[in-house]
Design brief:
The protein has about 200 residues and is mostly helical. The chain has one domain (about 5-15, about 25-195). It is about 75% helix and about 0% strand. It contains 6 helices and no strands. The protein has helices at about 5-15, 25-65, 70-95, 110-140, 155-185, 185-195. Helix 2 (about 25-65) packs antiparallel against helix 3 (about 70-95), helix 3 runs parallel beside helix 5 and helix 4 runs antiparallel to helix 5 (about 155-185). The longest helix is centred in the N-terminal third of the chain and has 38 residues, at about 25-65. The radius of gyration is 21 Å and the shape is globular.
């Protein structure tokens, strides 16, 4: 790929991802957030690969074995649930959730930072309300087991706690990033442009 094509690709990507122009936190909190990103993404990828292998095993058993393995469908479902729960916070942190960008391009640097702070505050408030209910829901599973794998459903229902816990944490990080960017203003944007 030539340098001109690379520049065009980068411009298109930046125009599509307006919120990524708001700088991330640095220092120990930023490093901690990046480490948490790597851990959660690694676990989500492990869940995805395991899910794929389980589906392949299910298909192979139906085609080549005289019996079908009934536990594969259940395991696939649980792996999918955990893959989503582990990846949701990272997706939020990287601004990759599905959204409609009607006015993001019109906003200046401080406007984008304020928008990020507002969205993060709304997400924080929502998860703060939902998280205790997710914990109560998970506790219901302490008295149940899954039909074929005989796994205590507590572990499966804990995926909702993992999901909303990660969203709560990442919404706090997004709120801090938005407020920090609003306070610093265009200096952070100018520094970022110089680095490129």
């Amino acid at each position: 790929m030539s340098e001109q094509e690379t520049d065009i690709h980068q411009d298109i990507q930046e125009n599509l991802e307006i919120l990524t122009r708001v700088p991330r936190l640095g220092g120990p909190i930023g490093r901690l957030a990046n480490a948490l990103d790597r851990v959660l993404l690694t676990l989500a990828v492990i869940a995805l690969v395991s899910l794929s292998l389980t589906v392949l095993l299910q298909v192979a058993s139906r085609l080549f074995l005289p019996i079908t393995l009934s536990w594969t469908e259940e395991l696939t479902r649980y792996l999918f649930i955990y893959m989503v729960a582990l990846g949701a916070g990272v997706v939020q942190h990287r601004h990759r959730h599905v959204n409609v960008e009607l006015f993001h391009g019109w906003l200046g640097f401080r406007g984008r930072a304020a928008y990020l702070a507002l969205i993060s505050a709304i997400t924080f408030a929502f998860t703060l309300v939902v998280l205790p209910n997710a914990w109560q829901f998970a506790q219901i599973g302490a008295f149940q087991t899954s039909p074929t794998l005989r796994i205590p459903m507590l572990y499966i229902f804990l995926s909702s706690v993992v999901l909303f816990g990660a969203l709560l944490l990442y919404s706090l990080i997004g709120l801090a990033e938005g407020i920090t960017a609003m306070v610093r203003g265009d200096r952070a944007e100018a520094t970022r442009q110089e680095a490129l």
